[in-house]
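Q: A reviewer asked whether we had any structural model of the full assembly, not just the individual parts. We don't, so I'm hoping you can provide one. Inputs are below.
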Amino acid sequence: MVELRVNGSVYRIDTPVGRTLAEALRLDLGLTGTKVACGEGHCGACTVQLDGVPVLACITLAHTVGDREVTTIEGLREHPLVEAFVEADATQCGFCTPGQIVSAAALLESSPSPDSEAIRHAMAGNLCRCGTYPKIERAIHAVAGREKGG
Amino acid sequence: MARLIRTEKEVEGRYTEQWVVVEEDALEQWPEGPLHTVGRPAPRVDGLARARGEARYTQDLRLPGMLRTAVLRSPHARARVKRIDLGPAREAPGVRGVIGPGDLETLTNEPNYEGQAVAAVAADTIEDARAAVGLIGVEWEVLDPLLDAHVALERESFVAEPRRYERGDVEQGFAEADAVVEAEYRTQSVLHNALETHQTACEWEGDTLVVYTSTQFLWGVRDEVAAEFELPKDKVRVICRFMGGGFGAKGSAGDYTFIAAELARVTGRPVHCRLDRREENVNSGNRNPTIQKLRLGARADGTLTAIAGEYLCLLGWDGWLSPTAGPAQMLYACDNVATVEYGVRLNAPPMDAFRAPGFVEGTFGLECALDELAAKLDLDPLELRRRNHADHDPMDERPFSGKQLMECYRRAEKAWARRDEVRARSEGPWRRGVGIATQLWYGGGGPPSYAWVRLSGDGLITVVTAMQDIGTGTRTAMAQIAAEELGVPLERVTVELGDTAHGPYAVVSGGSSTTPSMGPAVRAAAADVARQIREISAQRFHVEERVLSLSDGRIVSADGGSWPLEEITGLLEDGQILGTGARGPNPAGMRVMTYGIQVAEVAVDVETGEVVVERIYAVHDIGRVINPLGAESQIEGGIIQAIGHSLSEQRLLDPRTGAVLTRTLDAYKLPTIADVPEIVSELIDVPDAHLTNLGSKGLGEPPIIPTAAAIANAIRDATGADVRSLPITRDELLQALREAARRERKLEQVGAPSA
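A: Here is a predicted structure for the entire assembly that you could use as a starting point for your response.
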């Protein structure tokens, strides 16, 4: 048995040793908002936060999470970035979008008004094959600007 | 009245004549320009579902009792299975079904490319399935693979017969030329790498096979699966409500679908078969490499007198010959053109369509050669393109249905005029330059395509059609069209798609055909409902039907007076008003194409060969624009993929074994957010007056077509180096720079006064 703290709730699950956090979230908890696109830590689609730090859930073992708080897209559904991504058209096929938003939320938490350079640096690990990058940058700026303004 | 007619159908340059039944399509096109909803930016109607992680993709399915699959794939590019023992896999823990060569057409004991499927295991967990595949004993006889294009050409190893095209007399054309350029251009194999890998879950419900799959073409998968399992077509139900990208590679069923269906039959359980990323990079299709020998001739005033092209298209073991010579044949008015395309068969993974297949590759060669010609003639490259504008289809003299390319050229002048200023910003080892390239492509769509529209008692509207939304924003565009026709706000419209059992036939999401095929059908279905509302309202409000129209959610009379829509729909309580619509025929005797031009600004470090794309300006003509916001995203997405094609992406094959070396997203370099330049785009937005009740064409593919040539031409402008091969690696660029320097020195020596 392993105990996982996810989006403010505690789950006790019987999951095999060796299962990744991404698979534990998807298969054991049914939290399918976290996507697996490469399964080997190269694309960022599976990004979740551990105590606010973005990590790749597909190369993190469920049993190594310990008592750190896991935040997935399901825990960020009311985050202003979600609305901003939709308004800016920062989602095409949408498969990378949850991971993008989880990464962007961590960025804004640590740096509330990043410039373009900082956004590009922080988001470079989240691939989008559809090419929504200009819109992602716009969405992050929109939320950062809003928070700065008021 | 329904009419039975013959019409021309085109998908990615492949034309077929077919019978279609069309309803009388009496709808006039809407006036030009932005309307209430159509032509105005709309955030995606399914954006929240995707952004919140609520959208269910094929990968997210968990059917009760569902098994997972692993596939044994050939580790050799060409081999024979001498002996295979599936027994140990059958005995392994968690295994519920094992199939091998002979069980399915797609499982082979004579693989002809690396990754070809040989056997498959369904088990309780993916870990069990993988472990069992590892236990399958195979004795291979490894054979020599055919991997060299020129050897294959000599041996006439072709997937398709060579395709020859000729008009006029090219030798005569070259004799009339004042300048001739001749060069070889190469394009690489690139991989689609949609983030959701190819995958399918299958489940038998009685005599019906239910197929959940990540696909661009529900109905195509239905037909293929029905044929494979000898089922009536409608005993196969195909479902895809959300898909994580395709870019051309998800147009057919694929081995994973047949494997899942067969294992579901064998085990009596739902079965999911999903390619992992490494399988995806080997075995899910690719843009085929090309080697293009081009020769262009022109008179001193720039008039093209001859174009000759020989194209080796290295298709791999299977596939088809996409129209690589298309741009040479159609882009410019030139009387003398001769092309030959060879679809070379090699022991390499088969190609598949990739966003404007053929034209991406062919445009790179042609548009680079044209700039080399401009340099030789000392003509402005934009002016050279203008002087050779084709006023009608040069292949068969047909008029173009609507063509705003000259307007694209006019609008591009401003971006093109930045070149002196851009070049002047060169400093130190960083040289800057500007390049252009023109594009044409198909994208007119066609019948058959149908839609149903349902208006409920509460005044809400549902569009139902069994199409896919590949991620281009199809749901939103269809909702906008229905909202416009019915005069209601966009929020009142829902689009239900993605299930062949729950909607009429719809086209493939490919060939830039979705909006121009489905849009007119949706509009016709909405108009059918609107007509019924007017008829009912006329009776209810005692006015003449012809004075009634629908606007702002109200029924409006030209004689004054208006009523909320609910005054009619409310009468019906649970009653509904139902409309149907079909896509009409294409304009007879005309060529329907899309056009555009892009201007690239680059910076090149001549010491290291590093290239930075700093700005791309794009202007495209696709007829009427439905959603300018989604359209801008399509343009940006196409350009960003093209930047990857130009500078970093390349599938590498081991030249000795044929093994794919770039199997991961670490080795295969996709563009990241840090690689994106400033992108400025605009659309002409003039409806194609001859095309359907909308005048809209597709935009999925056009923007990816000219970018690579524009970048290569900008590099030449910046440095004088001729880059003729994609991707433009530092190595290649440094070599091209050395050659350019050598040419320069030679010129100086020739030009020096004799002693």
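A: Points you may want to mention in the reply: Chain B touches chain A through 55 residues (CB under 8 Å). The longest strand of chain B covers residues 304-316.
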